[in-house]
Amino acid sequence: MMRKHLAIFTMAVISTLSMSFAENSTENPDPHSVLYELHFQKGMAHDARGERELARSRFLLTIYLHPDHPGANYQLGVMAYSDNNNSAAISFLKRASGEMADNIELFYWLGKAYWNKGLAQGAIHSYRKAVNLDPDDENPFSLYALENLAEVYTRTERLTESMAAYQAALMRETREEWIDKIKNQIAELHLTMGTYLDDGNTRYNDLGEAIGGIGDGDMHTNRYFEIARHTTDPIKEASYYRKAIKADPGMYQSYFNLGWALTKSGKYQQAIPAFLRSDEVWRQDEDSNPHGTPKIDAHAFLALCYVERGEPQKALDLAEIALRMAPNDYYARLYKAQALTKLGRIQEGVPILEGLVAANPDEAEALYALYEVYRAASQPKLAFAALSQAVHAQVDGQKKTRWEEELSALDYIHDSSHPKQRKEKNHEK
Length: 429
Description:
By secondary structure, the chain is mainly alpha-helical. Helices cover 73% and strands 1% of the residues.
């Protein structure tokens, strides 16, 4: 069983381990040797045939021999991104960028990896670079970067810059579905900025506030909802989602988003009624939910709230409701596994979390949950590896500090169990 667990967990950390080859190797490539280039070309051939893991192994050999090889680092970066390992993707792509400073696609993927990690400044810099490298607007990846840049600006409250980016993208876009999407984004920005103009389809509440028929898509939204959606500050989010609910009590997504914002601030008890109300309103929405089915994400996050409240059986029951509707829902599976760990049903929780981490090796919360279940299963080496990876993946400063302290404690316990190691450490001091 230990071998099985270790094999599965290795899938999650392979990109980080390989990244260390590039970061820590001090060897310089022999200018007269073609061995590293041979490995790279074989890797490209494997990749062209769809032999992904064989290609990866060749690219890793390439950077072992030549850590700064741009092509191998680029290929490994894109692979890591597609494996949901954004930390590794950033490291590989940054290393490749030194000699590929004019590669538009590289900076597009780098921007996406940064944004998936919630690192807005890195995403903005990378997307801008991709756009600026294509002054004649000839490369489609610069357009994709421009559209993603507009989204990052929107989410970080740089609305004027977002509007300019969307309008520039609209001038270039030819895909009908994306033209419609951009027009709707522009309408939402006007609503947020207070510059929205009635197009003849707008619906209002009793106070004269626009609550529907927004833009070409006749969207059901309001200004408060859009202000909340266009920020990463959970306190501001919660405040404006409450105002959005007052403006339009029939909008189920406002209740859910309020609950989600509250969980990000650790206010789980306050989040529960918001999630419950989002489920009630969703079940009554005959247009969007004609069969009156439960709201999947509301039940998944209710499970989180009850895990945090110390009621794991209640959490498990709620997660199971979500999973009956969506068996592969990420959050329902995560919080089910956490509930199982709290209930002492370790053997049921381990495979769920290993599966989540294998598919999402850069998800800090899943890695931390895996650490908890390994520790509960008395598997200290695997627990240490999972927590190390969780610390590496975490971008929230407070959580990272707390987890680093836990990791230091685990390291101390591990060292204390080996008298020889402890003596050598004391001698070094």
